[in-house]
Write a structure and sequence with these properties.
Blueprint: H1 2-15, H2 34-41, H3 45-51, H4 55-83, H5 94-129, H6 137-145, H7 147-154, H8 189-218, H9 231-263, H10 273-308, H11 315-328, H12 344-356, H13 358-372, H14 381-403, H15 406-412, H16 416-440, H17 442-446, H18 452-478, H19 493-523, H20 543-557
Helix pairs in contact: 4-5, 4-6, 4-19, 5-8, 5-10, 5-16, 6-8, 7-8, 8-9, 9-10, 9-11, 10-11, 10-13, 10-14, 10-16, 11-13, 13-14, 14-16, 14-18, 16-18, 18-19
């Protein structure tokens, strides 16, 4: 294998001088102007994508990867919902159902949620802050290329490999089940491969977080100060800080679990080991929720004002609430453990912090609503997804406040209520913000415009499907239906059938999205104007659109003289050259 890798490296070195198009750490270029080395010396075809260190290319790679993972995870859950359409259905075995359940959760959280955020941040953070590239371009590329093998390891159990079966531990990997204790089949190597894949994704996320922190601190244009740094960059900076503290802990816990499984150690296989795993896992697991939701909040805070015709209301308070969520997120992990019998005084303190963290989230929500109040609202597809985000986030947040209360949590714990609450956040909020960003920035990374009618069909089908599926799950939880079951009592049949109908509506919506996305990318009308959303009319143009305008002009004039970019942000005033004089 080593000889093979050296041979591949030598072959690539012969056909392309990697250093010829690598940006310098300070953002400069080797010989000539920036436009010259980007357009003339970057390789083309497959070699470009295998060797690129351009932040825009890497952002595209993250986007393709995460959307493929989203499709895989979505198809997994569609199979599960069809199985649950009837309590006597035998389409899937109980074992395979548990396998899909485990892989669906891990796929959506680690292979879709985190990478889709990295897609936006890699592409747009340097453009928003006026940097030429990321601080560490090669590390940026390495962080991405750790993800495909991670996905293959996580999904290895589904491949036709002898004696390998998928993990059935659920995404929380609770011990002693995940440690292989007992007479079950969880000592199978499929669990080890999944854990190794998770470890790779954690290393990838940590490398990316270090890069974003270094980039935002050191690569900003001199006109971009902390006072006028855009809100999306603030959320990415906070998210990266959370990753630095959370993901290494997950990696350590996974390493200990692998040692228990393969080398006879006793971290989690002794008395108290199950509680230890829960503490370690949830100290990562709850900040992970905010790692996933803070950047989508940043996308909504950036996109929503563009189509409300006014700047984001209370910009500073949105920033402060972002930082407050980042700090408080590490003090709420044990609200997942109220039913484990931990000391009541500990439970009360975690309940207090869990209720308190709802306050900065509510600050953001009221700021979004106030931004729209009396605004000149344009119901474009990105705006519809932003409004859908806000409404779904309110439902998901309010249902979460109930779970923060100890007596209510003890009743609803491990029921479908938790599934409904969590998916209102993950699908109803995070995915909706992702779609808002994909549609909003579609002209920049494709140079074309999508079909607006299909975009709105995608929104309405997604909105109806999300609320039908997950609100029904909230009601199932109130009825006492436990989660993670492949069958159920007949009295729950109607509710499960409604949830399955909602999931199928969601599926149709995503099929429309895929068709619209691919077809528009290949054949959509080309964008001739650097301001396709008419943001200039309200003086709401941000730096990435200024860059896009220069890119179009350069393509037309073939090397015309570039002007200094005007940096407009959501906070503070527009910064121009005149302000410095």
């Amino acid at each position: 294998m080593g000889v093979f890798l050296i041979t591949v490296a030598a072959w690539l070195a012969r056909i392309e001088d990697w250093r010829s198009y690598t940006p310098l750490a300070g953002g400069g270029a080797v010989g000539g102007t920036k436009e010259q080395y980007v357009s003339e010396e970057k390789p083309s075809g497959l070699i470009r994508w295998l060797t690129t260190v351009d932040h825009k290319d890497i952002g595209m790679l993250y986007g393709v990867y995460s959307l493929i993972a989203f499709a895989v995870g979505g198809l997994m859950v569609v199979a599960m919902r069809i199985e649950l359409a009837d309590p006597s259905m035998t389409l899937l075995s109980n074992t395979f159902y548990n396998s899909l359940l485990t892989s669906h959760g891990i796929t959506m959280l680690f292979l879709f949620g985190t990478p889709i955020i990295a897609a936006f941040s890699n592409y747009f953070i340097p453009l928003l802050i006026g940097a030429d590239d990321m601080a560490f371009p090669r590390i940026n590329a390495i962080a991405f290329w750790l993800l495909p093998p991670g996905a293959l390891l996580i999904w290895a159990g589904f491949f036709p490999i002898p004696d390998i079966i998928p993990a059935q531990t659920a995404w929380t990997m609770y011990t002693p089940l995940s440690a292989g204790v007992g007479s079950g089949n969880q000592m199978n190597a499929g669990v080890d491969l999944m854990l190794l894949g998770l470890h790779l994704t954690g290393v990838s996320a940590t490398m990316g977080a270090i890069n974003f922190i270094a980039t935002i601190f050191t690569e900003r244009n001199e006109k971009v100060t902390w006072a006028n740094l855009d809100i999306f960059s603030w959320t990415i900076l906070t998210q990266s800080g959370l990753i630095l503290f959370a993901f290494p802990l997950l990696g350590s816990a996974i390493l200990m679990l692998l040692l228990d499984r393969n080398f006879g150690t006793a971290f989690f296989s002794v008395d108290g080991g199950a509680i230890l795993w829960q503490h370690l896992f949830w100290f990562f697991g709850h900040p992970e929720v905010y790692i996933l939701v803070l950047p989508p909040m940043g996308i909504v805070s950036l996109v929503l004002p563009r189509f409300a015709g006014r700047r984001l209301f209370g910009f500073k308070f949105v920033v402060y609430s972002t930082l407050a969520i980042g700090v408080l997120s590490f003090g709420v992990w044990a609200h997942h453990m109220f039913a484990t019998g931990i000391d009541p005084r500990l439970r009360a303190s975690f309940m207090a912090v869990s209720l308190a963290i709802a306050i900065p989230s509510a600050v953001k929500t009221f700021n979004w609503i106030t931004t729209m109040w009396n605004g000149n609202i344009r119901l474009t597809t990105p705006m519809l997804f932003c409004i859908g985000f806000v409404s779904n986030f309110i439902i998901g947040g309010v249902t979460g406040v109930f779970l923060a209360s100890i007596p209510i949590d003890l009743i609803l714990h491990d029921t479908y209520y938790v599934v409904g609450h969590f998916h209102y956040i993950v699908m109803g909020a995070i995915a909706f913000a992702g779609f808002a960003g994909l549609y909003y920035w579609f002209p920049i990374y494709t140079g074309r415009m999508y079909q607006t009618t299909l975009g709105k069909w995608h929104f309405w089908l997604s909105m109806i499907g999300t609320n039908l599926t997950f609100f029904v799950m909230v009601l199932l939880g109130y009825g006492g239906m436990p989660r993670r079951y492949a069958t159920y009592l007949p009295q729950f049949a109607t509710m499960h059938q409604l949830a399955t109908v909602g999931a199928l509506i969601l599926l149709v919506g995503q099929m429309i999205f895929v068709w619209n996305f691919v077809q528009s990318w290949l054949e959509g009308p080309k964008v001739e104007d650097g301001d396709p959303w008419d943001l200039g009319e309200d003086n709401l143009t941000t730096a990435e659109w200024t860059w896009f305008e220069r890119k179009l002009q350069t393509a037309v004039t073939d090397g015309g003289e570039e002007e200094e970019a005007e940096l407009a942000t959501d906070g503070g005033e527009t910064v121009t050259d005149a302000d410095d004089e």
